[in-house]
Amino acid sequence: MLHGSTHPGVAGSELNRLLARLADAPPADTRPAFADRLGHWLSWTGAISLSAALNAGPVASGPSRARATGGEEAEFQRVRAALEASIAAGPREDVSSPTDFGPYRRHCLALQQAMQEAVGALRQRLREALSLRSPAGARLAAIDAVMDQSLAAQERALLGLVPLRLQAQFERVQRQAADGDTSGLAAFPDLTCRVLRAELDHRLLPAQGLLDTWLQTTPT
What pTM did the predictor assign? Predict the structure, then answer.
C-alpha cells in the first residue's frame, strides 16, 4: 500500500469487498482515495510524526548497518502458512449446535489476536532488516512505524467489524434455514474461512510491502 506493493490497497481489498457484501453495502470502489482519507484518520500528533519521518534526512550508514539479518522472506512465509493453517482448521470447539455462533465468535477473536501478535512481530522484524539495508530503507522503516501507530485506531475499527458481520450473516442464514433453505448454513464455515483469510491478507499488506522493498534494495 505505502511501499509500492502490487497488492491491492485497503479500499479495494478483498476484506472490504466481503464486509460490504455481508452488510449489503455498495462497493467500496467509489469511496475517496486513500490519500484523501488519510488526512481524516491522522491525529495532529500523528501528522506531525509522519511529517518528521517524511522530511528526515538520510540516515548515516555505519559498519553495523551493512549487516543483513537474513531469513526475512522465509519468516514471512512461515508466519503466513501458520496463520492460514489455523484459519483452515476451523473452531477448536465442536460446533455442537447449528444455532450457536459462540464457537465461531471465539475462533474469530482468537485468530484476530494471533494475527495481530504474529504479523506485528513480523512487521517489526522487517522494519529492522530494512533499516540495516540502506539509508533509504531506514527512512521507509521509520515512515512505516509512524503509519502503524497512527492508523491503529482506524485498523481496529475495520477489523472489529469482522466478527460482527459474520454473526449478522450467521443469524441471517439461520432465518433462511428456518424457512427451508439450508444452503447458506452449510456454506457458513467456508465463508468464515474466506473472510479470515481476507483479513490475514489485509494485515500482511504493509509487511509484504516492506519485504518487497527489502528484496529489491541493494545493501549499502
Answer: 0.79
**Position 53 in a domain:** no
DSSP character string of the chain: --S--SS--STT-HHHHHHHHHTTPPPGGGSPPHHHHHHHHS-HHHHHHHHHHHHPPPPPP-GGGG-----HHHHHHHHHHHHHHHHHH--SS----TT--HHHHHHHHHHHHHHHHHHHHHHHHHHHHHHHH-HHHHHHHHHHHHHHHHTHHHHHHHHTHHHHHHHHHHHHHHHHHHTT--HHHHHHHHHHHHHHHHHHHHHHHHHHHHHHHHHHSPP-
* Domain region containing 164: 67-92+101-220
How many domains would you assign to the chain?
A: 1
Is residue 145 included in any domain, yes or no?
yes
pLDDT exceeds cutoff 50 at 44: no
- Checking if the pLDDT of 60 tops 80, the result is no
- In a domain? residue 36: no
